[in-house]
Amino acid sequence: MTVVIPTLIPYGRHHLDEEDVAAVVSLLRTGALTQGPAVDAFEEAVAAYVGARYAVAVSSCTAGLHMAAVAAGVGPGTTLITSPITFVASANSALYAGGTPAFADIEPSTVNMSPQRLSDALTHNPATRAVVPVHFAGLPCDMPSIKAAADAAGAAVIEDAAHALGATYSTGERVGSCAHSLMTLFSFHPVKAIAAGEGGMITTNDEATYRRLLRLRSHGINKLDDPFQLPEQAVTDDAPNPWYYEMQELGYHYRITDIQCTLALSQFRKLDMFIARRRQLVKAYDAALGDLRHCRPAQASGRDQSGHHLYPLRIDFEAAGITRGDLMRALRARGVGTQVHYIPVPAQPYYRRLGFRPDDYPAAQAYYREALSIPLYYDLTDDQQQHIIGSIAELVG
Ligand SMILES: Cc1ncc(COP(=O)(O)O)c(C=O)c1O
Asked: What is the β-pairing status of strands 295-297 and 128-132?
């Protein structure tokens, strides 16, 4: 007997076409594999698109978050506040920089950091240097309120926009313009809006921050026309020493390659097309799933603003009479992949050992109990979406 294993529809995936392949192949023929013009071209394209003065491409969003925390002054004796519903990297950036992470609970209706809870957290953590709101699933946070709270506490705002390339704030600017922040971070991991293999980008409008990020990306070595700290070593008989460079602080090797940036740039040209299709799929899910008794979209607002990285549902498993594990297995048997975004960071064993208690973030815990992300990506067909909707309606009701 042959067992037919249905092809799994994943919860997310990238879209590559022949243009992407051709772009990378022609880059390989140039021989400029890293620190070449493709990095600059990608940075310029993203900066122009989001409306920021500067962009610094890095090896991953995680690397960028680490550098951003350092550039914002996070270090021993200081705190960085983020959302409990995020990927662990957002909070880990505090620890990488030698600082202490803290969490501000979410707003149940958006799954984003609550400005009110942020104000509370800032009161409890007077040494906060950075606030890291996360545009969960691509939905922009309430940035004017978050910025006002952070400003009042003298903390910098670093937006974790790993999910939100192509999204727009309610105030009209693009996420990444840093209209309400010092820095914004993007990720180009394949499951995100555009794929570079791995990669990240930091945007900022602040020149001093930009220069610092350039140094931190490459070993702390001086860049552009940064003044030398030992000028007498830099010059012989009034002529600049051509070999001379200075390591001026402890930096990292967080550079990205031209190979990755070439793929990313080719992908970037399709970003608006990717998002338009994701938005269409989201609206179809909203219409079909909104009427189910035990299940609702986790984020119902901002459908025309979101970058639509994920489609998270909230399911009342108890009322539906099925556990999350059984539902995931039953959907998988029907060829539908799902995932939970995210286990609250304070619930991770490492964070519990640091003294965090998940119950201190009741809105995050309540969301986590009900969360399930269902497939959302550019190549998802209408037929596949109908199959997903039908399977959920049948299993959850
Ligand atoms: C919210 C968030 N922040 C940061 C990251 C880290 O991105 P990267 O994989 O590019 O380091 C991710 C990746 O999943 C993420 O979802």
From this structure: unpaired
